[in-house]
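seq as requested:
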Amino acid sequence: MRFTIRAGTSSSGIADPVMLRALGLPHGGVISVGKTHTRVTGGDTNGSTDLLLDDETMRNAALRPGSSVNVKRVILPVAQVVRFSEHQLEARVLARALQGAPVT
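struct tokens:
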């Protein structure tokens, strides 16, 4: 299903609830958008095919506002191991921050 990317501020994408139901995500979930994955939830948008993404998600997806992109529902496997090359946080803090987040 094609959506038009619009600037948003939430760390989760926001799409029209009717469109999410059409994607098979009546209560939200994880989508593939551009080169990344993100959580999406239903909410108010200006147009039924608008997808609101924050700057970081747009950067990860290699998209910009106004881009038209194919979006699909995905079911990601549960990560068994996540490795970081460098980080300043303790492992438990990182684990808590990533809990439930799509990591690709």
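Helices lie at 17-22, 55-61, 91-98.
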